[in-house]
Automatic annotation (TrEMBL), chains A, B:
<feature type="binding site">
    <location>
        <begin position="97"/>
        <end position="99"/>
    </location>
    <ligand>
        <name>UDP-alpha-D-glucuronate</name>
    </ligand>
</feature>
<feature type="binding site">
    <location>
        <position position="176"/>
    </location>
    <ligand>
        <name>UDP-alpha-D-glucuronate</name>
    </ligand>
</feature>
<dbReference type="GO" id="GO:0005975">
    <property type="term" value="P:carbohydrate metabolic process"/>
</dbReference>
<feature type="binding site">
    <location>
        <begin position="318"/>
        <end position="320"/>
    </location>
    <ligand>
        <name>UDP-alpha-D-glucuronate</name>
    </ligand>
</feature>
<feature type="region of interest" description="Disordered">
    <location>
        <begin position="326"/>
        <end position="345"/>
    </location>
</feature>
<keyword id="KW-1133">Transmembrane helix</keyword>
<dbReference type="GO" id="GO:0050650">
    <property type="term" value="P:chondroitin sulfate proteoglycan biosynthetic process"/>
</dbReference>
<dbReference type="GO" id="GO:0015018">
    <property type="term" value="F:galactosylgalactosylxylosylprotein 3-beta-glucuronosyltransferase activity"/>
</dbReference>
<keyword id="KW-0325">Glycoprotein</keyword>
<feature type="binding site">
    <location>
        <position position="128"/>
    </location>
    <ligand>
        <name>UDP-alpha-D-glucuronate</name>
    </ligand>
</feature>
<dbReference type="InterPro" id="IPR029044">
    <property type="entry name" value="Nucleotide-diphossugar_trans"/>
</dbReference>
<keyword id="KW-0333">Golgi apparatus</keyword>
<protein>
    <recommendedName>
        <fullName>Galactosylgalactosylxylosylprotein 3-beta-glucuronosyltransferase</fullName>
        <ecNumber>2.4.1.135</ecNumber>
    </recommendedName>
</protein>
<dbReference type="InterPro" id="IPR005027">
    <property type="entry name" value="Glyco_trans_43"/>
</dbReference>
<feature type="binding site">
    <location>
        <position position="171"/>
    </location>
    <ligand>
        <name>UDP-alpha-D-glucuronate</name>
    </ligand>
</feature>
<keyword id="KW-0472">Membrane</keyword>
<dbReference type="Pfam" id="PF03360">
    <property type="entry name" value="Glyco_transf_43"/>
</dbReference>
Amino acid sequence: MAMGYFNPYFIKRRAKKWWPYFGLFLLLVIGYQEGVLRSDSSSGSYTTVDESSRSTMKEIFALEREIKLLKSVLKKYSIPEAEYADTLLPIIYVITPTYSRPHQKAELTRLMSVFLHVPSLHWILVEDATHKSKLVMNFLESSGLSYTHLHQSTPPDWKLQDNDPSWRKPRGVLQRNAGIKWLRRKLRGDRDPRGVVYFADDDNTYSTELFKEMRDTKTVSVWPVGLVGGVMVERPLVSRTATPHVMGWMTGWRPDRTFATDMAGFAVNLALLLRRSDAEFSFTSSIGRMESDFLEKLVTLSQLEPKADLCTKVLVWHTRTERPNMKDEERLRKAGTPSDQGIEV
Amino acid sequence: MAMGYFNPYFIKRRAKKWWPYFGLFLLLVIGYQEGVLRSDSSSGSYTTVDESSRSTMKEIFALEREIKLLKSVLKKYSIPEAEYADTLLPIIYVITPTYSRPHQKAELTRLMSVFLHVPSLHWILVEDATHKSKLVMNFLESSGLSYTHLHQSTPPDWKLQDNDPSWRKPRGVLQRNAGIKWLRRKLRGDRDPRGVVYFADDDNTYSTELFKEMRDTKTVSVWPVGLVGGVMVERPLVSRTATPHVMGWMTGWRPDRTFATDMAGFAVNLALLLRRSDAEFSFTSSIGRMESDFLEKLVTLSQLEPKADLCTKVLVWHTRTERPNMKDEERLRKAGTPSDQGIEV
């Protein structure tokens, strides 16, 4: 447990002061054992385990909050990040296509709240536009996240029309590819790029646990996605064997696709993605096959890594936000007095 | 676990003399407990508890190491300690009505991500149901938040029917009142209750800044709400005088209401709410007047505190999530093979 404390370099460097840390360590060990002891002595009931893990969770969140506070102070005083950056974790590169609409900032704000809980995350936000918008620029600048802001417009022929159903045309294709290209360019020459790439649309709902699950992806990791494809949950079917592997898919629509997963249901190892220089998304994929065509360039079914307790937990939901009612706004605009004059929504 | 022991100042102050002895003492205690443990560990379920709490301990160690590192950098750059010292903040009590639907857990997960960024927040989650659901119970338990879980069902006559427009009947009335009642009961006898009460529906989008703004509410504080009432933003009109105050409202619908604000647009001082024992929401409020009727029991217009840079910033959005398409799910249910069998969505 926490062998870092017994690392000879650590001890040498801190020789004079190591007793307090050792004491601290012992205190925690005792605390932990007390927890175990208590849970063991409660005859068959899980209540105590629950309670002790609940209070541990509280402790963890309190510590995380403290870290956030300390980091915000460091930012405020413009202390270089290299002084305190976490360099040990593989970076999660999240690629998100986004486009202008009344609820864009609300959606991005929700993503931000989740991403701020995830250490070593770099957000590549790609606007479907001919230039970067001021709204997104300001939003990212004040977000406190590590990010890259790109733009890449979709040719008009390929855009969804207002009355098209959402599946009519593949969306975000060029934007996701712009994100991938940026990674290829940035990491060219990096012999051992450590990291994970995840494609996160801006309207889905993500839990923070999801990012813990994908962090150590070696090829392509997969998990269930809630509220997608006309069913409550779509998920990989995992064999209950000594070395569990993905055997197929449980979906409402075409489970016979090689990789019958939604965009939100997988993450790719960074080095693998960079090595396969032809791996990108395509407009020519037939309807509902964009993800499968992309993954076929990277792995075979048997190479997939099932995550989220062997695909038994839902940690991401394919939610969609209603287009807000702008009935009165149209009237105000015609009268030359829009409600958002001088205020960004 | 008493966090005071981990306070670095505590450690530093005492470090020089007594830690070695204390450490030795702890070693002996552990030795004793190890003995006890080993004789207990014959039960099969023991391993899992052991491993999961060991990895949690690792996480705690890692977090504490990070805090230590961050504090040492802050010291190195001589940043005043007051900047990052913990203070006693007034508690923000957030009252949220919720009800069962396919995307309930997704919505609650989004709220959780925001609330976890907010120190001193207590979440009062009130289910519109005849009993507490397992889903919400488990969700709250593992959330890491401080919370109270209540339930209060709405009589069938007062429930919205599937085809009713959402404004047809006031929603969440009894649930919000149940939250208020819980506060009155819990804090009875508290002579100086410090805190704020906010009514946060489970589909809106909240920024973390919003909670900073409402924290020191003395009467009732107000701010703009985005994407509501058929316009981009509704907001209080604030005088540009030496002592700025709210003069009226900019809304698409009935700006002549005394308090023409959405539920998401205000917070109430806790002591004030407790003092006005008749302040609660009413089914008999006419359409769109529930908030105004409630606030009339608490303040006058001139007593309102304009927040969010004198109501020039949007920190909360009245978003609504689409009912997910469950077309194929219905088919699966009829066939007796629902997609969410054995997996919570």
